[in-house]
Specification:
The complex is a heterodimer. Chain A is mainly beta. Chain A is 0% helix and 55% strand. In chain A, a hairpin with a 5-residue loop joins strand 7 and strand 8. Chain A is globular, with a radius of gyration of 14 Å. In chain B, strands 2, 4, 5, 6, 9, 10 and 11 form a 7-stranded mixed β-sheet that branches. In chain B, strands 1-3-8-7 form a 4-stranded antiparallel β-sheet, with no helix packed on it. Classes of the chains: A mainly beta, B mainly beta.
């Protein structure tokens, strides 16, 4: 079945440093989504990427979708303490069955040290 | 606007007991799903439904049953609880499967002793 790998599992940064998490799928994706989960909370949608090579920005967050639509990244510039949480990528496959299933990566837990 | 509501928030079960985790959404979404979250493993899909009367298995369906008699409700049943089912369970809904964001409930923390 479809697998989505995400690295690193943990990342500690000093406030103001940059942060990047990477996502790789075993199969081609129709789209990829990113979610943020605060400690003790539930996943909250951040963004969806659909096109090959797509880049989207949300303030200090930059999201990329690879040319082959099998990998993606999230980059945060100048982290703040409010960025603390676990970031998940989640992809949907291109086949009729896998398109109905949102497969999550294992997540990257970000700690921001003040 | 309540969104996705899960009950209970916390539950302790003894091995072998059965129970139902409730999930309701008020957004008229066709697609609903159940995930379990374990440390270091992300969210794994248990079961999903693309509409009332239609359900299908996800990645880890064993030990769980679902039904979808209405658009609003998607309960998850544990038939005979096992310690391996200790986890945090999230219900999610979205308007259309495959192209739109998922809205998650607050989660149910289940412990099986």
């Amino acid at each position: 079945g479809q697998q989505v790998m995400q690295i690193p599992q943990y990342q500690h940064v000093q406030e103001g440093e940059d942060f990047t998490t990477y996502c790789n799928s075993s199969t081609t994706l129709s789209n990829i989504q990113w979610y943020k989960q605060r400690p003790g909370g539930h996943p909250v949608f951040l963004i969806q990427l659909v096109k090959s090579g797509e880049v989207k920005k949300q303030k200090r967050l930059t999201f990329q979708f690879g040319e082959a639509k099998k990998n993606s990244s999230l980059h945060i510039t100048a982290t703040q303490t409010t960025d603390v949480g676990t970031y998940f990528c989640a992809g949907r496959g291109v086949s009729s069955g896998s398109a109905r299933q949102l497969t999550f990566g294992s997540g990257t837990q970000l700690t921001v040290l003040p | 606007n309540a969104g996705v509501t899960q009950t209970p928030k916390f539950q302790v079960l003894k091995t072998g007991q059965s129970m139902t985790l409730q999930c309701a959404q008020d957004m008229n979404h066709e697609y609903m799903s159940w995930y379990r979250q374990d440390p270091g493993m992300g969210l794994r899909l248990i079961h999903y439904s693309v509409g009332a009367g239609i359900t299908d298995q996800g990645e880890v369906p064993n030990g769980y049953n679902v039904s979808r008699s209405t658009t609003e409700d998607f309960p998850l049943r544990l038939l005979s609880a096992a310690p391996s089912q200790t986890s945090v369970y999230f219900c999610a809904s979205s308007p259309v499967p495959g192209t739109t964001e998922a809205f998650f409930g607050q989660g149910t923390r289940l412990t099986v002793v």
